[in-house]
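Action item from last week, closing it out:
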Amino acid sequence: MSTVNLDEILDFAVEIAHQAGKAITEGSETRFKNAGKFLSANSAGFDEKKNTADLVTETDQNTEKLVYEAIQKRYPDHQFIGEESWAAGKQAELTDAPTWIIDPIDGTTNFVKGFPFVCISIGFVYKSEPVIGVIFAPFLGYLYAAKKGGGAFMTSPLHPERRSLPLVQPPPLPSFKQALIAFEWGSDRSKEVMAKKTRTFERLTGDAAAGVEGGEMALGVRSIGSAALNFAHVASGSLDLYWEIGCWAWDVCAGMVIAKEA
């Protein structure tokens, strides 16, 4: 890492995560204040990217712009890959150059509905390897962060000091039946994909003794609608496993670093 200072970049990523979090909460406040004035979804400040399960809001776009401009001002030679710029048609090519990979709002549907599991996900890649991850959930006040070789930590309103992850070192699970799993359905709801997802869900949760072929009967399943926060909860030890089909780089980049360092 001779040409990048990971400590400096991590501190900067935490700083812009808090700035983005403020933009997200302000966007939510504005949206709900004006909710009664809107007659349709598209006039309410959000649109469908692919289908009704894949939404984008003005706040997504404004937040990504805020983060992009902050990075360009501080690190003009760094590359940038963002979910919304990619969705708008900008090519996303990963090279060996220092690259930021951003999801401005992971959990957009949650944001639209007022469900608080929403976050900004900031990943930093050097020589094609994710080396820094920061995830901030502004409605909850939880921040998760890590750098390669430096461990992972979190802060929260209850514990504003940095706490190493996992919060409690979990013992090896004696069997799958003790596992609490995150499972997401994603935005691809085609017949073929849904058949595979449904079969996987059956095998993860079903009871083989009651006739579910291959059923492992996991302890429980949670679906919170945010890939990044699922990674963060695995890192903290509150989830044992996260399963999903169809994630993108901006969904997992930051979370991978945090989970690995935990």
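Closing note: The first strand starts at residue 46 and ends at 48.
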